Amino acid sequence: MTEEPKPWERFITTDQLLDLYQEAMKRGGRVSAPQPGCLEACIGNAWTAETYQLDEEDEPFGMLFAAYLMIYLVRNHCFEDGNKRIGWSSLVGVLDQHRLLVDAPEDEVVQLVHDVVEKKTEVAGVLMWLADHLMEATLH
User: Fold this and answer.
1) Most C-beta atoms within 10 A of its C-beta, which of 20, 87, 88, 139?
2) Among 3.40.50.300, 1.10.10.10, 1.20.120.1870, 1.10.4080.10, what is the CATH number of 12-25+35-136?
């Protein structure tokens, strides 16, 4: 009996998160397995957070999901090292599913993620930051 796909899997899966983590950790740091159930909880909670903020007839777009997923991954410390990197990579990965790219200097990205870690920025702040730094990907 196969398991029904989760609604968020059209944006990102646990396996994709693990791949993003492995890629992000190539920059250095101690690679570890995630805490049991942590990635699944972050994804599920991010999905729930987005869907609760939508009107009944709205279809989840993924922008809120991406922002919440980054926040949950950064703050919940699923891994021993690289939580900020996987948080950021997950946000970029979900946005990529919508053909959206972040256009921001690295120092601004680092500041955003640190503001999330320090709880200076919540989801509304992340969305406002994204509004100023998103561009649509073009086909070449």
Assistant:
1) 87
2) 1.20.120.1870
